Structures are given as C-alpha cells and as structure tokens.
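tool=predict chain=A
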Amino acid sequence: MTQTLPSAAPEALNRPVPTRYRSATAWAERAAAPLRLTAGPGARPTPAEVEALKAGLLRRDEPAAALVRAMRVDRSVSMKQIRAALDDGITADSPAPLKEFFEPLRERPDWVRDDLLERGARACRRLGVDGLRVLGLGSLLGGYRTGAALEPLVRTGRLTGEEGQRRLNETTAWWLAITAPGGLEPGAEGWNLSVHVRIMHAFVNDQLEQAPDWDWDFRGVPINQYDQASTLGVFSTSFLLHARLFGHYVSRRDSKAIMHLWSYVGWLMGVDDAWLPRTERIGRRLLYQFLAGDPAPDENSLLLADSLLSSIDAGEGSALTKRFERERTLSMATGLLGPGAMRDLGLPMRLPWFTGWRFLVNLPLSQVLARVPGTDELTVRRGNASIERECRRIFGDDGPSAHGVAPL
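tool=predict ok
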C-alpha cells in the first residue's frame, strides 16, 4: 500500500529547502536499510513524496502556533487561561483563540474507535516492564541516533545527567497516562498531557524561530512536521519492532490497535493526518523515508545519549548495583539498536545477553498465552504488575504522576 504524504501545503514557509535533507545519504541509507527491508516493496518515496518531505521541514503546527501568537503577540490569551482550558475545558466566555484551538480537539475525528484505543492500550501494557525498556532505549535513545530533531532539546538545556533522567521520567509518565484505561478520553490525564506537550512544543518553536542564531538554512522550522511525524514513528512503529526483539508476540489485531492509538495521539499532538501511521506497514514505510532523509548524528546525539546513560550512574543503589544496571542497559541497547547505532551514539557495545534472555523467556510464553482462550485479562494484569514494580523503583512512593511533564 502506498501512503500519500502531504503535498507542499500553503503554510510551508517560503524558504529554500533546508540542506539537512539527504545531507548524509550514505549514512542515512545504511541506517535505514533494516526499515526498508521490513517495509517491503515500494518503500522508497515517489517524486511527489520527496517534495512533501522537503516541505515538511518548513511547516510548523499552525493551530498551536496561532495560540502562542495570541498570547505573545496579540495579548488576547493569558497563560492562566491556557492552563485553565487544559484542566477544565473552555467556557462560553473563553477567548476566541482558545476556542479555535481546543474545540476541534474535543471533537474526535470520525475514524477514531474507542474499542481500538482500549485494545491498543491493553496490548502496550501487556508487554510489562519490557515495554518501558523499549520506550527508554528503543524509542528515546534510538531517536538520538540522528541529528535531525535534537537541537531544540539542547537549546532548552536538557543535557545534564539529572535532566536526562527527568526527560526519561516525563516520557514514561506520559506513556503510562495514554495507555491507562480511558487515558485518551478528552480531559483524561493522557489526553491532557498530549495536548500539554503540543502547546509546549509550540512555545519552544516560537522562541527558537525568533532566535537570531537559529540555522534556518540547515534545519528549517525548529519543531517541524517532518520531525514530529518521525518522532511519532519511533514511539509506534519502532516500538513494535523492538518489542518483538524482546520475544513478545504481537498479533495483527494488537498491531492494528496500537498503531490506531498512536495515530490518535499524533493527531492530538498536531501531526499531519497524512503522516499518521494508520497501520504498521504504513508506519514502516514512513519511518524509513524519514530516516533515509535525516542528517548524520552530531555532537547533540553523543551528548544526549551520554546524558541518558549517565542518569543510571546518578541513581540510587550501591556501586555494584549501578554497575550491573549500566551493563544491562548497554546490553539491551546493543540488542535493540544494533552495533551501528551504538557507534553512532558513541556508546560502548556489549554482548546482547539481556535482550537474548528476554527473547528466550518471552517468545514461548507469549506465543502460548496468545493462543489460550481467556488469558487476555491475566496477561494484562501480569504486565501491569511488572510495570508497577518498575515504577516504584523509578518514581518511589510518589508514583509517575508526580514526575509528569513540566508545567506550562
């Protein structure tokens, strides 16, 4: 199936195509080769899709940008009103810019199905603590491999070991919220956090667009549609691929439901409809095309990867415990991302013993349980129990909500 990508939409800025696109062709094709194999025939973009990819680097999330302008330029909306709209919804007296942003979000698109959202969330939770491991090392660390979308993170100062841990904690708290029962109902925690992050991105984007030293010629819009859709891909498409490397069986129905859930999350966060990964096949093709056009890893890749690993050293426990956790993490990262990615990230490779052990444990168990009637609730409870144990280790008695996304 061919996925139609957005055309060069009217809101694309009238600037030259950023030079980062296909700036490291040999590296990008090598890095993206496994994705091309999984995407199947027709993975390479058509000429029209190439133009859409280029235009995506010059396109921002316009509805969220309009809300930021209403606050910073027009002064017709206050930060207090934005926070109130997130927490309590809008009222008849809410300013027009607030209504224009929030009202469409509370009216779900016709394609969103509650049964698929519920099934997708349960399928994610069924992975248990392995889901959190894939999230941190497959999605988050793996996303640092390319220098495409990292500069905004660096500009916001999120590099030190402590900040690296905080970002991991925030991402974990967000993932737990959107996969909780009813977590994506309008006004629920997962829904609120997703919209919250979208607004935060718009504020950061506006700030960086005004920065005199922002490299427009190379990078394009700081937080652009291309990078937003690509990031969505590492939390959905590559998440499923990495879960299977841990030996988890994911049925076609569960795959469809997980991709449906993430498509809705992407829609909430302002990703173009045409770049939503509606199925795993579409998601693989999209993610291949994004990665094949990405720039090579840069100093930001090395700094952020080191920050994530350093957060383990800064954790609690004895020196021996920390050493074991670091070695286990490096083993998992090598198994999930591969030697090439570890080299790109400047991280030492280890034998993937932990990934192999999880594969040997999970593969027969998940295959058997998937075929035994009446075990669905059991496997979800089992997954949730392991997640809760890991959350107590990470967050302590406060729980993940106390470590949620930074306030607006």
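Residues 62-403 form one domain. The two ends are 40 Å apart (CA to CA).
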